[in-house]
Amino acid sequence: MRIAMVGAGYVGLVSGACLADFGHEVVCIDKDEAKIAALRAGHSPIYEPGLNELLAANQRAGRLSFTNDIRDGMRGAQAVFIAVGTPALPDDGGADMRYVHQAAREIGEAIESFTVVVNKSTSPIGACDVIEQIVAERAPRGRFAIVSNPEFLREGAAIDDFKQPDRVVIGVEDDAAQRIMREIYRPLERNGSPIVVTTRRTAELIKYAANVFLAMKVTFINEIADLCEKVGGDVIDVAYGVGLDPRIGRRFLNPGPGFGGSCFPKDTLALTKLAVEARSPMRLVETLVDVNEKRKVTMADKIIRACGGSVKGKRIAVLGLTYKPNTDDMRDAPSLVIVPLLQQAGASIVAFDPEGARHAAPLLPGVEFASGPYTCLEGADALVVITEWDAFRALDLDRVKAALREPVVIDLRNIYPQGAMRAMGFRYEGIGRGA
Fold first, then answer.
1. Is 228 annotated in the active site?
2. pTM
3. What average pLDDT does this structure show over 212-222?
4. Could you say which of 228, 263, 307, 376 is catalytic?
5. For residues 268 and 285, is the Cβ–Cβ distance under 8 A?
């Protein structure tokens, strides 16, 4: 099947490459000419494990191509996916739908024969209704159908998530469109992945409900970690014991400096806005948004306390800047709050991130970027771990101690064993390790 993917960002590239790998003929469309030129030359604009290889293999096989021309890209396509950004609006946190609506206008003008228009961008409830109205102003209603197909990709594991999903959600209200969507995802259905077919609005709500529930799990365990520090418990054991209950599960029970990224912050804000507009406010979600934002500030305070109550004139080494490992994504990363607060308190910051430095540098002025973890630590008064890259877990701790001016480690991801660190002479501070 020929498929057009409007938007060659994170979701569009991963989805397009995986669909091409299933055997479909996929054209990724993007207005950014430099991005399209780079993709044609084999260079991905984002870091995602395995993506470069997948893009290259399917380009060589002739199943994946890139263009700036939406009419050319849509020619002969039975389905066109909208995979453009919906960033949070600065005033109220609602999703900015400008790019989705612009894509819908251009798609409507380019439709030549029956086409399934699939919204894969995270959008408010009712977004497909608006897309349908926009397209209908430019194409006869019998020539298209609108579908909601939310994505559930984890950055750093997106290819596996697409190819071995927990579920595929299809919001559809047209029989012909449903047949085409099932044909697109037939390889997954054959492999036993559940296909959830529902209404468009229900599909849109599934996306928000899933992300916000996971954000609540993260926020919950962070508050339990704070309590552990006060009463002498160990959050690692608490999370393990709680997570063994199959009704709860162990995933997303890892305490840290607060959630970030492209989904959780934006989706929690968007859902609270939608709930207020629908006169069905969600107090639980409103609270978790507030708690998560304040947590990043308290992490800076925690670092300052661990450094003796002041970081003025001190050199602080930071390992990890991206919001999570295995990505170069800096969107809403906790480091963007923590690092400036340390700078305001008088610290000089030297940082290392395996993939995020290029995007982090313009966002964190005044930070010195090191070429590796050990050069980052050299002569520092303290080490702060913000992102749990695997490369940091296996550092030679004797070498770490020798490199630091003071053996102070503030581990905001609990990647090091507390007892062993203290036995080695480190002044070690984790998260929720009150025991």
1. no
2. 0.90
3. 97
4. 263
5. yes
